[in-house]
Amino acid sequence: MPARLLIVDGDAPTLLWLHSKLSDAGYAVETAHRGDLALQKIEAEAPDLIVLDLVLPDGNGLDLVRRLRADPRFAALGILVLSGQTDSDTITRALNVGVDHYVLKRPGADVELLANIRAWLALPKKGVSSGERGRIFSFCSAKGGVGTTSVCINTAYALAKLEPRAEILIVDMVFPIGSIGPSLGYDSRKTIVKLSQEPENQVDRILVEKYVSQLLKWGFRALIGANDPSEAGTLEVSRIVPIFSLLKTMYDYVLVDFGRTLSRISLPIIESSSATIVIVTPDISTVKASRVILEFLETRNMDRNRIILINNRTVGRVWTTTEDIERELKLPLAATVPYVVEYMTMAINAAVPFMDKFPEHAAGIVLTDLARRLQERDRVKK
Ligand SMILES: Nc1ncnc2c1ncn2[C@@H]1O[C@H](COP(=O)(O)OP(=O)(O)O)[C@@H](O)[C@H]1O
Ligand SMILES: [Mg+2]
Question: How far apart are CA 290 and CA 309, in angstroms?
Fold first, then answer.
């Protein structure tokens, strides 16, 4: 089957010229002369690649690119720009919002364009070229204080050790006040709340990178939730899904600490996660509350095999056995993290990874094992 291309250009002679050149080259070619029509055709016909002009009768081509790149359905779509705009600002902006190649419109540009189309189509479909890069893992619990943050940051650390070249981001989504920052020894005024208030059309990779930390000594980056309750109250909820779609294209792993906030904010992200790690502790009230959470996720058609249940023994005394928990929650436990007395708190107070401070302890091995499980989930063939 020939590759399917869609040409988007407001100029009729250009459409004709490209249509004949690209059809002659053996591709199945469609055209659209406006952005909104292009979007309809992309939705209906799922082309492999679009060739896009930036000046369209109904607006800026880059707005279309932003929409496409924020939508996981089009993660595999190739986007080549063919534009008369030659300033480096525009070119840089285009590449930053997710354009694969930028070809200058001039006589003879069809040769360069064809070479780029051929090169793009020959790329291995590694889940996707520039779109869907990474996977989201959500960490949550029915109650606070069960160790969600401890498990999340130390699993992220284990993951960074297992896969040193992976780009890993940890996002604090515990509102009104999370603990990722202090637990990692990282402090910043740049939060996801502030990011959610940026003008929609300016949220691209470059801007997001200004909000994300440098590579921390933990081996990953972090994005803080909110610094205080009044800030948290100003979160622009409608922007959260697009932000996570963008994060997913920027990092190999996005680990999200949702704490016990199962809400309209967290649900869409949880539902689009490769797996959700639900932390329980072996006491009756937490187990019962977790059951409610799991049943709720089930009503949302969340597949049970996308839930990884972790028993974290934050207390020395065990009130319920593994079997009790599994029976009550109707799910097998993926792992049990042993009670580590005050060591976890000591590690967190010192803002260092637990397994570095107490390498001889079994809890580190269990958390490394959890990291390995995440690696295997929806693994993208490279
Ligand atoms: N396996 C464990 N053994 C002992 N203490 C733990 C363990 N896991 C977590 N803790 C401690 O439990 C407390 C709550 O952990 P935290 O990660 O902040 O929970 P959450 O994010 O669910 O509120 C912290 O003081 C932490 O050090
Ligand atoms: Mg927490």
Answer: 10
Express each pLDDT in 189-245 by its tens digit.
Answer: 999 999 999 998 888 888 999 999 999 999 999 999 999 999 999 999 999 999 999
φ and ψ of 351, to 5 deg: 55, 40
Q: Is 358 part of any domain?
A: yes
For 23-62, what is each residue's pLDDT tens digit?
999 999 999 999 999 999 999 999 999 999 999 999 999 9
Tokens of 130: 């520039």
Taking a 5 Å cut-off on Cβ, the residues next to ion ligand 2 are 148-149, 179, 259
Q: What does the pLDDT read at residue 380?
A: 59
Q: What are phi and psi of 320, to 5 degrees?
A: -135, 145
Please report where in the chains the tokens 């402090």 appear, as a residue: 187
* Per-residue pLDDT at 125: 56
Distances (CA, A) of 114 to 19, 20, 101, 119, 252: 12, 12, 12, 8, 30
Phi first, then psi, for residue 310 (nearest 5°) are -120, 130
Say yes or no: 236 and 102 in one domain: no
**How many angstroms separate the alpha carbon of residue 147 from the centre of ligand 2?**
7
Do 190 and 69 fall into the same domain?
no
Q: By residue range, what is the domain housing residue 349? A: 135-376
For residue 52, give the nearest of 28, 34, 27, 71 by alpha carbon: 34
DSSP code per residue over 169-216: EEEE--SS--SHHHHHT---S-BHHHHTTS-GGG-SHHHHHHHSPPPP
Instruction: Indicate the pLDDT class of residue 362, thresholds 50, 70 and 90.
Output: very high
Average pLDDT, whole number, for the chain?
92
Q: What is the pLDDT of residue 133?
A: 78
| Residue with CA at minimum distance from ligand 1 atom 17 | 147
In a domain, 226, yes or no: yes
In angstroms, the CA 86 to CA 90 distance is 7
- Span from the CA of 219 to the centroid of ligand 2 (angstroms): 20
What's the number of domains the chain is made of?
A: 2
Tokens of 338: 């042993």
Residue 102 CA, ligand 2 centroid: distance in Å: 44
**Domain stops at, among 68, 96, 122:** 122
Domain shared by 157 and 224, yes or no: yes
- The pLDDT value given to residue 129: 37
Which candidate, 158, 124, 154, 161, places its Cα nearest to that of 139?
154
